[in-house]
């Protein structure tokens, strides 16, 4: 509880915030002072008092943007707007719309909440504040004596923040309209929370929901469809279903504490939208959540609370492919009698039959006397609460069957939007433009999913363009993976050197610049870079030379991005928000502006560049004798592609010093790699392909599997070497906040099915999981003498069983948990790609602090701030990977439109109604449904042998199982439901 306020001689007011923090069972009392001011201006040019205050303090902080003294009229009264947090989060597109929302006050409370909940939206809000024409201002209510509110006893933080926002509205109303001889300016509080609006009205505040506010605007007809429904426009569907209501917050908290409830992220199966899993530490296997009723309105990736079901309802994972269209057949959105009404439940007949079959299978298994029952069954659960929704902007298309043929566009009608992400349900929206939007990629936002509605409700945001147009599909995949792709804002670009591309390293290193004097001049070393062809953002370069004592000096030189990207600037904030560059087939979405990434920071040859260097002395067996970390200046002698470097190394007629140094690097890299493999480093695989683009038309040409050369490995080994050395250095200096990267060992349950497949289908083959060395050795032994690709296939399937690597601050784990399982090293970080990864920027700053080059920013020494940074970059890194794969999938589909062919494939999954086949040449995998294989009535699935028996289309008996090599014809087709083009595989 805060203590009484105290007025200081400076005019400030100070309050004391008292916190009780529990650590290891002991309570610690923490007291923090909180300073309040009475001279924070209101930003309104209509306010005489604040205008005088600014005149009296010409050296103070004068706001760049001011609220208009003649704001727009609303029902003949001029007004300013105050919005709450949920309005910003759910309607940022509308706030940015040029047809509405001017003179908007953003309380600091709202800004802070938005930053914590969505950093990208926070960045967009900050851009609005800087856009003069929109006149958005941030009012620092948390530091204003007249608007700061303390938290009451028993009050939730959410309720306290709502009260703080209402206090801002009341203060502005009194402040603007008191003792100012101007036309009255109304304050309109826009809020969708009914309880908060009710309290606001009781306090005399003029408040409107977003829907009601938009209805009062001149262009309401145009804007109406862009507004969150707020459960108001789908009232006619409120009795079509009856899901279980979510448990109360108190019941959830108590249940999680006493272990009767569990929380975790829900992951929906990509092959069965009726089945999800939730991984919780209390169970070795993930909890299965099966069926519409038990999923209870949860979306994929929601943070949910689940309740365990009785053991007689435990199941094995479904062996049936289930797609949404096969269950509900796309109900009429305007028909509330759709087979799922409140009277007969929410489960369609087809789903009811499937669930009954799965239950029968479980009972048969349990009563079979099989001692391996426990191995097959998984605990099941139902969703009883959603802690955090994963809702974002989604991309899809309007389902043609949901649009009435006589729709003339004059009335707003309900229709369904089928999302590109097939594990998500279709969304019901209301629009008068349904016919116009048919065949378009559209963006929608989800607003709610009531217990009385069979489908979630949302609203239309905007159209991206025609389905299958390159621009629309590319923008769609960027939105789907939450990639920030808009141009860099002016305030970000203003952080770049004023000289622009004419900037260069000073000729005179002794020019009085103290930091420049600390740099080591390495321009005399034979430095070169080795990268993919046509690489323009060169992060790293290397050099090597023999030493008189028989050892070698080896240097890794990394672009010194932090020389240009200073902490806590707009440029740094943008890099932190984007987290990583995103590489698509036809373009690159940069983390930093082009001037830095491809020019000033890129280690281009024949020109001086700032670098951060790691220089080792190593013996002939690549053992470290010493290591030095230094800021430096280098001049690369050459920028090689992998192929060009390999040719030069292999060409025996080339014996110049630069070629000799590359041969030293190659020789040492082989020894480094062998050491890692001896320690248990994994050599996994993924079906990576490259799409060649026509240089003139930018059309996709052909697809090829990526070929790796020794020079690929050369670069990789020394980047790993540098990352490990830097990780040790920054951890020694910052044991609580060092930016590290870990890779947890996989739980045995992740490999259960793969091991079962290998045992049954490949004569007892087995992947050992005792440690990474055992796993690596067992992967080496998975060899089929008749099939050279089989070992690669097993490595690909093993990769999918592994845990994802993650960034973390060192203080969040014990040292034993730092281990990177895949690399078999005890500590690791990312240092070598600061142009394209924000993690590396943080590491550069920490390393600079560790060697005394410059002080480390507070944001990289604070555990809470570091936790915020790593959460964002983990998400951004993962999204970038998915976006890159989606881009390849799209372009492979375009290539296949005119290149139908028959290829070899491998069965990687078997179900009772289909198989999944991987085609190595194109790096694609496709589902072949049973009805496309042959006679559905004759099919028998042997779950123990992972085999499907059926009569093919020519009435021939066939048996196909996992790992079988098959011939498939590949065609490119457009899915009429989702609009996505994908490869169709036809078994030969």
TrEMBL record:
One example GO MF annotation: RNA binding
Pfam family, one: OB_Dis3
Keywords: Cytoplasm, Endonuclease, Exonuclease, Exosome, Hydrolase, Nuclease, Nucleus, RNA-binding, rRNA processing
Region annotated Disordered, chain positions: 319-345
InterPro entries: Dis3_CSD2 (IPR041505), NA-bd_OB-fold (IPR012340), PIN-like_dom_sf (IPR029060), PIN_dom (IPR002716), RNase_II/R (IPR001900), RNase_II/R_CS (IPR022966), RNR_Ribonuclease (IPR050180), Rrp44_CSD1 (IPR033771)
Residues annotated as domain S1 motif: 893-988
Gene Ontology CC: cytoplasmic exosome (RNase complex); nuclear exosome (RNase complex); nucleolus
Chief localisation class: cytoplasm
Any one biological process term the GO annotation gives: rRNA catabolic process
Sequence ranges of Acidic residues compositional bias: 325-339
Cofactor: Mg(2+)
Domain of life: Eukaryota
Compartments, record wording: Cytoplasm; Nucleus, Nucleolus
SUPFAM superfamilies: Nucleic acid-binding proteins, PIN domain-like
Similarity comment: Belongs to the RNR ribonuclease family.
Protein name: Ribosomal RNA-processing protein 44
């Amino acid at each position: 509880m805060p203590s009484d306020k105290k007025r200081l001689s400076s005019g400030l007011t100070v309050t004391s915030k008292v916190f009780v923090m529990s650590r290891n069972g002991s309570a610690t009392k923490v007291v923090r002072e909180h300073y309040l001011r009475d001279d924070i201006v209101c930003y309104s040019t209509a306010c005489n008092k604040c205008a005088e205050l600014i005149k009296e303090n010409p050296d103070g902080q004068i706001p760049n943007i001011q609220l208009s003294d003649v704001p727009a009229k609303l029902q003949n009264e001029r007004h300013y707007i105050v919005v709450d947090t949920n309005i910003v989060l759910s309607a940022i597109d509308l706030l940015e719309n040029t047809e509405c929302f001017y003179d908007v006050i953003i309380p600091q409370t709202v800004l802070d909440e938005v930053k914590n909940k969505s950093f990208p939206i926070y960045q967009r809000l900050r851009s609005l504040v800087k856009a003069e024409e929109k006149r958005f201002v941030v009012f620092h209510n948390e530091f204003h004596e007249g608007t700061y509110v303390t938290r009451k006893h028993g009050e939730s933080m959410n309720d306290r923040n709502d009260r703080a926002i209402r206090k801002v509205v009341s203060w502005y109303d009194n402040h603007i309209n008191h003792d100012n001889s101007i036309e009255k300016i109304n304050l309109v509080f826009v809020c969708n929370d009914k309880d908060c609006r009710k309290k606001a009205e009781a306090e005399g505040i003029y408040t409107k929901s977003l829907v009601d506010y938009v209805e009062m605007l001149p262009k309401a007809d145009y804007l109406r469809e862009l507004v969150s429904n707020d459960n108001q426009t789908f009232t006619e569907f409120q009795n079509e279903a009856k899901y279980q209501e979510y448990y109360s917050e108190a019941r959830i908290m108590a249940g999680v504490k006493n272990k009767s409830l569990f929380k975790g992220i829900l992951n929906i199966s990509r092959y069965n939208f009726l089945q999800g899993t939730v991984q919780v530490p209390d169970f070795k296997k993930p909890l299965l959540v099966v069926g519409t009723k038990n999923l209870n309105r949860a979306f994929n990736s929601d943070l949910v609370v689940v309740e365990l079901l009785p053991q007689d309802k435990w199941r094995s994972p479904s062996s049936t492919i289930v797609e949404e269209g096969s269950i509900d057949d796309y109900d009429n959105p305007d028909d509330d009698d759709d087979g799922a009404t409140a009277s007969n439940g929410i489960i369609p007949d087809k789903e009811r039959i499937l669930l009954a079959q799965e239950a029968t299978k479980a009972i048969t298994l349990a009563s079979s006397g099989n001692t391996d029952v426990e191995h097959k069954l998984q605990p099941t659960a139902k969703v009883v609460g959603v802690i955090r929704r994963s809702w974002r902007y989604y991309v899809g298309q309007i389902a043609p069957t949901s649009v009435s043929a006589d729709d003339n566009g004059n009335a707003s009608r309900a229709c369904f939007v089928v999302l590109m992400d097939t594990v998500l349900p279709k969304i019901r929206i209301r629009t008068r433009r349904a016919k116009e939007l048919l065949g378009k990629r559209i963006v929608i936002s989800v607003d709610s999913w009531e217990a009385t509605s069979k489908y979630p409700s949302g609203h239309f945001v905007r159209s991206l363009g025609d389905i299958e147009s390159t621009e629309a599909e590319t923008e769609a995949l960027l939105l789907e993976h939450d990639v920030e792709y808009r141009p860099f804002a002016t305030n970000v670009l203003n952080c770049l050197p004023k000289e622009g591309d004419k900037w260069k390293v000073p000729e005179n290193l002794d020019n009085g610049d103290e930091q420049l004097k600390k740099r080591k001049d390495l321009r005399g070393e034979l430095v070169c870079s080795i990268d993919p062809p046509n690489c323009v953002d060169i992060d790293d370069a290397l050099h090597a030379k023999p030493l008189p004592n028989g050892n070698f000096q080896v240097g890794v030189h990394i672009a010194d991005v932090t020389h240009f990207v200073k902490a806590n600037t707009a440029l740094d904030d943008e890099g932190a928000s984007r987290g990583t560059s995103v590489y698509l087939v036809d373009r690159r979405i940069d983390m930093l502006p082009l001037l830095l990434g491809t020019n000033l920071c890129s280690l281009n040859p024949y020109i001086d560049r700032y670098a951060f260097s790691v220089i080792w002395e190593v013996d002939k067996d690549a053992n470290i004798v010493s290591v030095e970390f230094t800021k430096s200046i280098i001049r690369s002698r050459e920028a090689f592609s992998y192929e060009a470097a390999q040719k030069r190394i292999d060409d025996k007629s080339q014996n110049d010093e630069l070629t000799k140094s590359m041969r030293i690097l190659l020789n040492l890299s082989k020894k480094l790699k062998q050491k890692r493999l001896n320690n248990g480093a994994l050599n996994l695989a993924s079906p990576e392909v490259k799409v060649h683009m026509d240089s003139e038309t930018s059309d996709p040409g052909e697809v090829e599997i990526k070929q790796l050369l020794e020079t690929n490995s050369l670069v990789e080994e020394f980047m790993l070497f540098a990352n490990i050395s830097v990780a040790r250095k920054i951890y020694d200096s910052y044991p609580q906040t060092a930016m590290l990267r870990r890779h947890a060992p996989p739980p045995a349950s992740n490999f259960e099915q793969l091991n079962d497949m290998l045992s049954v289908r490949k004569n007892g083959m087995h992947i050992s999981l005792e440690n990474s060395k055992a796993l690596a050795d067992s992967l080496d032994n998975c060899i089929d003498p008749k099939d050279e690709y089989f070992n690669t296939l097993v490595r690909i399937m093993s990769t999918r069983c592994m845990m994802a690597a993650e960034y973390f601050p060192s203080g969040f784990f014990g040292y034993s948990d730092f281990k990177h399982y895949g690399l078999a090293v005890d500590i690791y970080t990312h240092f070598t790609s600061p142009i394209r990864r924000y993690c590396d920027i943080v590491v550069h700053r920490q390393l600079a602090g560790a060697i005394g080059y410059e002080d480390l920013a507070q944001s990289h020494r604070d555990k809470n701030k570091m936790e915020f940074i790593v959460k964002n970059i983990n998400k951004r890194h993962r999204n970038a990977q998915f976006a890159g794969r989606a881009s390849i999938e799209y372009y492979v589909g375009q290539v296949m439109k005119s290149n139908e062919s028959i290829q070899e494939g491998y069965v990687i999954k078997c179900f009772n109604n289909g198989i999944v086949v991987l085609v190595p040449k194109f790096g694609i995998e496709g589902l072949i449904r049973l009805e496309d294989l042959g006679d559905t009535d004759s099919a028998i699935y042997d779950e123990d042998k992972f085999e499907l028996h059926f009569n093919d289309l020519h009435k021939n008996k066939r048996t196909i199982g996992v790992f079988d090599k098959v011939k498939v014809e590949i065609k490119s087709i457009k899915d009429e439901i989702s609009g996505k083009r994908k490869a169709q595989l036809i078994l030969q």
